[in-house]
Amino acid sequence: MLSARTFFLLRPWSDRPIRDCGESLNQIPLSLHRLEPHPYASLGAPYGVDADPFRLRQGVVDRLLRAQDELQQEHPELCLAIFDAWRPIPVQAFMVEHAIAKECRKRKLKRNDRSQAEELQRVIDDVGRFWAPPSLDPCTPPPHSTGAAVDLTLADSQGIALNMGGEIDAIGSISEPDHYREAANDQPQSEAYLWHNRRQSLAEAMGKAGFSQHPNEWWHFSYGDQLWAWRKGFAEAIYGALPVPDSKPRTA
Ligand SMILES: C[C@@H](N)C(=O)N[C@H](C)C(=O)O
Ligand SMILES: [Zn+2]
């Protein structure tokens, strides 16, 4: 179970009021490449009936198409590759628990060992830098539950994801967008230089289309949510949490 400290750790953007514009959640068109099988559905995350993660608010879909155009003006050989998009709150809760359990295994910690409480809290805090709490409070929705956030990378013309110098969802400083900046400046022609430039190309294309980037994650961008409003200096977000889908098939 997550501690109260983690649950109530507010983000700097959590103070932005949300006035939802009511736009619908729509399919991401197939002209935008998807990385499949979907990573969280493959883990058994509780998506509910007919809950397709490759959906976003229409304004976000439109901007994603624009971002791909921007990218291809500079790099015609590349495309965007979608890793994850809409994420219902039960899936957010499942993935936060999954990330904590994975990190505990990596650090050889036992969840129930009281003598390791401090190390366990460190894991929870580290995971909390990357995963939003699965808050049900309409004032602090997890970004992907609003249909405003997308996790994505770059792929080549065959749809193969490029090496960006770190896996999507890695817990650690390697995931920070500027992680390789210094090494890239020091050593042009190095792998760090390549990875930094790829991260920059992704961020530039997304930025030109109006998206804001998460400060800790090279792959996470949003348009219209609280983080976006905070980063752009806007008073309000335009997308809030969407209803949680049914978990059982409806009976006639
Ligand atoms: C960790 C990553 N997949 C992600 O989506 N992070 C954001 C901040 C979130 O949990 O909403
Ligand atoms: Zn994300």
Number of helices: 8
The percent range for helix content is 25-40%
- Molecular shape: globular
Distance between the termini: 37 Å
**Widest sheet: strand order?**
2-4-5-7-6
Task: Report the bound ligands by name, code or SMILES.
Answer: the ligand C[C@@H](N)C(=O)N[C@H](C)C(=O)O, zinc ion
Number of strands: 7
Compressed to H and E, one letter per element, the order equals HEEHEHEHHEHHEEH
Low-pLDDT stretches: 1-8
Main pleated-sheet profile = 5 strands, mixed
Q: What does the model show?
A:
Belongs to the peptidase M15D family. InterPro entries: A_A_dipeptidase, Zn_M74/Hedgehog-like. This protein has 252 residues and is α+β, with helices and mostly antiparallel strands. It has one domain: Muramoyl-pentapeptide Carboxypeptidase, domain 2. It is built from eight helices and seven strands, in the order αββαβαβααβααββα. The strands form two sheets. It has a five-stranded mixed sheet with strand order 2-4-5-7-6, sandwiched between helices. It is globular and about 50 Å long. The N and C termini lie far apart (37 Å).
